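Standup notes
- HV: blocked on the assembly model, inputs below
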Amino acid sequence: MELQKLHTDVLIIGGGTAGCYAAITIAENSPDTNVIICEKANIRRSGCLAAGVNALNAYITEGHTPQDYVDYARQDAEGIVRGDLLLTMSEQLNEVTAHLERLGLVILKDENGNYVTRGKRNLKINGENIKPLLADAVYRLKNVTVLNHINMTDFSVTDDRINGAFGFNTQKEIFYSISAKAVIICTGGAAGLYQPNNTGFSRHKMWYPPFNTGAGYAMGIRAGAEMTTFEMRFIALRCKDTIAPTGTLAQGVSAKQVNALGEVYENKYGLTTSQRVHGTVMENLNGRGPCYLKTEGITSEQDDALLKAYLNMAPSQTIKWLESGKMPSQQNVEIEGTEPYIVGGHTASGYWVDTDRETTIHGLFAAGDVAGGCPQKYVTGALAEGKIAAGSALKYICSHDLHEVVDEEISRHFSKAEKFLNGENARFDCEQLEEAMQTVMDRYAGGIRTNYRYNEKQLAAANERISQIEALTETLCAHDMHELMSIYELRERLTVCKSLIAHLEARKETRWHSFAENLDYPERDDENYLCYINSKLENGRIKIIKRRTVKEDEHYEHNDRQ
Amino acid sequence: MSIMIDSEKCIGCGRCAEVCPGNLIVMDSKAYMKYPKDCWGCTSCIKECSAGAVKFFLGADMGGRGSLVYTRQQGDILTWVMECPDGSVKEIRINRKESNRY
């Protein structure tokens, strides 16, 4: 590999929604600041919005306030949220929405020019081209350099302060060391930890992008950053097989969740995100499955609108309807829960940040799905966090000089990658070890096939086996840069799995059905667990830290780093 | 579910390989889907392809019946074309300036 050393004021890792918007914010407020965006694929279609998005699900509609949004998210998460993060995010939602519209996003309006809302917090859009719109806006910026097809893998940190990061090109034999005054991490959440719904040819037809491997979490964990609430996994309720969104059916045509007997069951279990999944699991367990969204009886005009809406976000579902010859008006849509993900845009997992979105590593800021404490972000919340993190990074670089990444550290990371590239005669390949990891997580850490449930004995077994698989990754070898990327992705997932298992073990209660269903402790325990479970890697061991809840009237700072 | 690339139609522009979020398509003189089982089904490549060479299909394991889907673009109109195994063709036209109704 060739070595390239780069320098910049702000390094943004991950060119998804949050990353692109952070770059736009920096350029608008400080046009002379140099920014590099490193993106594993291409910012035009990378991350979870590659196919598009069906609606803007986080907006303060008329008659509501940002505080209402905080209250909603807090209730949905059974209290385990950061009020300060939710409120500062919510206050930005409408402004970033207006900006998105100026960038070209089509938002449905009524005859008076007001946005048409879908439910209490949602706007109707055509979000098929949301990523190309953001990418075009980024490419217009003078001092922002986009490096596509660069997979960043490790931070350089000295005395809890960021110096930059390392990575490599996924296509050409180039290794990068990038020194930066500040780094914004926006790599998204983690998919592919658990055995997915489809296990064969269509194994990657999952809810969250299989290319989001939790890289940002893993980089932070290894660098000693504090993480929060990994145990609050996210499980999406989706259309069976295609794993397409259900919200468009539930909210668009008011389709109710019904069991095989045609009974509406959603009210029986509650309407929070986790309760909707739990209800579906319970109906199946009690012999009343499969479960469906009741679409039979909608009009043929509604059929046509649904075919188009799904093409704009999840084309597989439209093709499924067309190929089967049965439209939703003629046949209810079967639903199922997905495998669990770690994703801070929906639940509260991720970096432990202060109100300004700085992590516990000085100069490292987090935004979007990788940032914890602030669930229900959706697209606009990720933009809002990108904006807040960018503002904080700009402030930070005014008083902090560049700390150049030292050669000795570069050479250590460079050699590690070279070792995989030069290796020979590996006993296992990446795919085998990934399947082994997913099977362990599924069977012992609450996957689909154990109805998302686990106990302490199972978690201990999971931890032991994941550690064994992790050791085996040392023996892998890569024949090209794509395979090198796969090895690093597997290692990232294993790092995330170990933290996740430690978090599941630490929360000795069941606060969220399905998301964290601990069979040893089936009840909610507010006396001991109305708090955050945080973790930090210290001398190779995961240390659990319990922290008190933070309300929205507080400006939280990292005053007691542990 | 995955994609296949019709090498007769492919003009070798490389746009599909450039945008694939999984870096799954590689370029020789033509584009080639190297990792079909790793496809997420986002259809980014299909919308980038002006030659109609990149085609999407549902795997049999998720109920697919062998239809192939590609797109055609003219101004704001994005047309999704589905070639069914019986030779019939279905088209859905979407105006990119129109919002989803739901």
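- HV (later): unblocked. The domain at 2-95 of chain B is CATH 3.30.70.20 (Alpha-Beta Plaits). Chain B has a mean pLDDT of 95.
- Next: hand off to the docking folks.
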